[in-house]
Description:
single chain; 12 helices; globular; transmembrane; Membrane protein YqaA with SNARE-associated domain; membrane; transmembrane helix
Amino acid sequence: xxxxxxxxxxxxxxxxxxxxxxxxxxxxxxxxxxxxxxxxxxxxxxxxxxxxxxxxxxxxxxxxxxxxxxxxxxxxxxxxxxxxxxxxxxxxxxxxxxxxxxxxxxxxxxxxxxxxxxxxxxxxxxxxxxxxxxxxxxxxxxxxxxxxxxxxxxxxxxxxxxxxxxxxxxxxxxxxxxxxxxxxxxxxxxxxxxxxxxxxxxxxxxxx
Length: 208
């Protein structure tokens, strides 16, 4: 009897959670962002393929980059980008590490740097709280992200980690509302999955 009651309570709880996310628009938000992400993803992958085949040999291009700029400089640039609004598409760096001696090791390093960059963004959000004028400006600029993170919490962090929603913006919003940092770290781990999934597509298109 107790196990049946526990199962029923768990089922009711899941139904309530489902109703909450349906009512607050979480599912439509997810679908809208997936729909928006499909075309840019196809364009990026197709663009890389066309450029590699008909315009520029990425292997030689990235070898030139590697010979003229140290790996430390390039990884530092990527980390800075991921910490401050993700200004440079990660796909370019994923394509770059494909040309290195141990691509999956460096891919994991990219994922780690992106994850840590999100942590930097989180603490940028927290630090904003100590500067009233900046806090007011950022809250106005990021009102939608802040509203969403208040409503959906960890689920929005997962979405931000996986989809082309600016992960740094989600991270800053998490810091602004003082979202639990341990939970942020846990949900942010989905960032690694995003890099591995994108790499499967990009690496296969670039060939050996």
